Amino acid sequence: MDETITADLPVAIVTGAAGGIGAAVVARLIARGMFVVAIDSDAERLGAAFDDGGRRLHPLVVDVSDGDAIDRAADDVRTGLGLASILISCAGIFARTPALSASESTARILAVNVEGPLHLTRAFGRQMAERGRGRIVHVASIAASTGAATASVYAASKAAVVAITRSHARELASVGISVNAVLPGYCRTQMTAPEAATLAAFVVPRIPLKRLAEPDEIAEVIEMLALCDTPYLTGAAIEIDGGLHVG
Questions:
Q1: Rounded Cα–Cα distance for residues 35 and 52 (Å)
Q2: How many CB atoms lie within 10 A of CB 188?
Q3: Digits of tens for pLDDT over the chain (247 positions)?
Q4: In the chain, what is the straight-line distance between the N-terminal and C-terminal CA atoms, in Å?
Q5: Contact at 8 Å (CB) between 233 and 178?
Q6: Residue 232: how many CA atoms within 13 Å on its side-chain side?
């Protein structure tokens, strides 16, 4: 860890931190006085996204699908900063996987979107259990509820995130850890940029607010879940899609 880091602040872990929703979450948590470990697998984007001189933020290049790397990162956090109190799992990938075509993306999508949250919860949840209190927020997708034509593996991975959230909420309540998920709809991020024309033509007209979400709008709800005092809010899966899911 950087020698300029002050280790007396509450520690939050944010994955997928180099852009989109993850970067918006990092900014909000720093503004609320947290120390943030910003994790992403893209070293170049991560380096460009954040530079505060190590005062309140530590960028860390890790692939969340690598369980051993996550364990090492958790050990580094424990040694350099203390026990984590918040985990925001934003890291995720999307690829088209048509039902009647072979796809080489399936294993990678499941490794990042499903195994990643499991590795992160194991490594950093142990630290929260030691503290006797913690908050975990997973970023799923509205596709977990609606499905996604030509992207069934992505939709299935996000449905798995909701199942993980609810299962861990049951299991970890006894050690003071709340576990919740958000299900964003279509958000203006790098992931949706290639689909912009299609979304404008076919999806935006069906959204009551008639626009895509901005990353900070999703981050605001994540911030609320991460900093909420009551442990009674756990096991929730909150849809944030401008009303699209209500029809």
A1: 11
A2: 16
A3: 444 444 457 999 999 999 999 999 999 999 999 999 999 999 998 888 876 555 789 999 999 999 999 999 999 999 999 999 999 999 999 999 999 998 999 999 999 999 999 999 999 999 999 999 999 999 999 999 999 999 999 999 999 999 999 999 999 999 999 999 999 999 988 888 888 888 888 888 998 999 999 999 999 999 999 999 999 999 999 999 999 888 6
A4: 48
A5: yes
A6: 1
Do residues 21 and 184 lie in contact, with contact meaning Cβ atoms separated by under 8 Å? yes
Distance CA 26, CA 142 (A): 22
Backbone angles phi, psi at 16, to 5 degrees: 65, 35
The answer to whether 83 and 130 are in contact (CB under 8 A) is yes
Does the annotation mark 154 as catalytic?
Answer: yes
Could you say which of 84, 154, 155, 168 is catalytic? 154
Take residue 218 and report the two structure tokens written for it.
């999703």
- Contact of 183 with 218, CB cutoff 8 Å: no
Look up residue 231 and give its DSSP letter.
T
Q: What is the per-residue burial (b if ≥16 Cβ within 10 Å, else e) of 210-244?
A: eebbebebbbeebbebbbeeeeeebbebbbbbbeb
| Residue 44: both structure tokens together | 């170049």
